[in-house]
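Handout, section 4.2: multi-component inputs.
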Amino acid sequence: MRADLAQLSPRRRRAWLIGSAVGAALLVAALLLLRFEIRGRDATWAHIQQTGVWRVGMDPSFPPFENLDAATGRPVGFDVDLAQAIADSWGVRVEIVSIGFDQLVDAVDAKRIDSALSALPVFEERARDVSFSRPYFDAGLVLAAPRSAGISGPDDLAGRRVAAEWGSRGDAEARALKRRLAGGVTLVLRDSIPAALDAVLAGDADAALVDAVDLALYDRGQGRLVAVGQPVQSDPYVIIVPVDAPRLLAALDETLAALDADGVLGRLRTQWLEENRTE
Amino acid sequence: MTTKRNASVWPLLGLAVALLVLARSGRPWVEFDPPQQVVTLNPKLGVHTRLTDEVEPIKVQRTFRMVREMGAPWAVEYFLWAAHEPSPGVYDWSHADLVVDHAVNQGITLIARLGYVPEWARPAQATHLYLDEAGYDAFARFVAAFVGHFRGRVKYIVVWNEPNLSQEWGYRTPDPAGYTELLRRAYQAAKTANPDVRVLGGALAPTLAPAGSEWAFNDLDYLQGMYDAGAAPYFDLLAAHSYGWIFDPDEPPSADAVNYRRVELLRDVMVRNGDGAKHIIITEAGWNDHPRWTKAVRPAQRAAYTVRAYERALSQWPWVDAVCMWAFRYPRPAGTYQDYYTFVNEDFEPKPLYLTVQAYATGTLAGVDAR
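Output:
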């Protein structure tokens, strides 16, 4: 080839080199396009579009997010309504598949269901197998206090009384605070979460450590007690999809953002955490 | 000044060299305690640890130290075939040695649960719990290698976990005869490697799944299916899972309920099949105290139920050798109701449950004031 090139006139040689460069560039562009096309393929999303059914796994034992309705035996709750809202926006039918909690991630990984929506956190150790949507709820441990208490975070608790349910996560956190804060805290332990929150309202404690859902279910939107500051421990809930379902994941993220912006997530929160009594 | 600086450099240099030597040796950096013994009033008391993905030796040690200090002489731990045989016939026991040696050092009898299929032993798209019959001999060879390597240190192994769940059976239809064949090959391989090792079979998930369920196979029917397939000679003890859900530990057993005493129904199946002399080890059990999970109880109930459950095994179940509650600690929070099964949190903060069980095991329960 080198000998052939050498035999060409300078003009033809330049033309040959330019042609080769353009050809190489076109080849690279084609390969990149092919790569993006392969990466963008999503058999799960294609199947949902083709069948018009989105198969969603959940463990209906976790009110108010998913539970079996005592009268009908059908799953009801925040997550059920969220799944329905997402499916509606896609123009497909949602099929709820009841599966034990421990099996949900594997069921997605094995493509036995399209997604898992069941008050699930991000399982970082499974990131090779499944993908996680943007969070749609944070159920973390919060500090509950009256707005007038002058408490804006755990550091304000030094020398104060903190209520929690005996043996709960709030109890463990309160004991850790007792050791960490100069001046300590006084533990006010009760035998249930409502009793711990009652202690705050009764003036027997300055604040309580409970999770965000328990606080919402207790207060029912009355504003007597609020979550002050950032969650002490964050527990974001996400939707889980197969790792090779980028279009489904993108559609979920986009739809969750839209449902948040449209106030649908807020309405679900009000409906299931402040209005409905699921117990 | 220069001399002082040089003098202070030498110890640091020496420390750095020592650390390098230790790092290169592949040995754990933690000092083993002098050999310990568990002091307890209930020799059947146990827990299921979760050290599979605990990488820090000092946390492995601390786990077993706290298990011992709680008064538990038994622990179950999961050993991943995929981690310990990364390619066929090539074994890496480094993490397993760490776990086993610290358990032994603390005087704890370790029950090794074996499973989790390496990529080389399963089809590309299959889950890590999928193993068809073509892979049974490879698993049996791993079992033999494990038993041989840990001879004198690990006396009990559990073959597979909850094979009556579709998920745990690699999303194949749960099949008692198929599991019995796996158990047979694993048992024979284990006994060839060490005739003294005790092989546990079953480890069935308690489930009320209806017949023909896509997801699970009723545990009582499954155990009968194992006997029908000729499983009896291939397990020395039955491993049982005995969760309490919302029921107290004295709630009578019933085929249509999942409760702690459901293990008595498994025992009935064994007796009906002429296997009543065989004992049971409960390798998973317990109560959960999440505030909203419908199968959970309150923390104070959980503490009382757990102590009562240990006591029932000691005083009323001579055919149960140990009760290992799920789970002592997770290396990191799961962020779900699963976190409410543990005895201590991820940074070893003991929950009141731990203190209550410890008080029970040391005979000071009446005086304990966890509050």
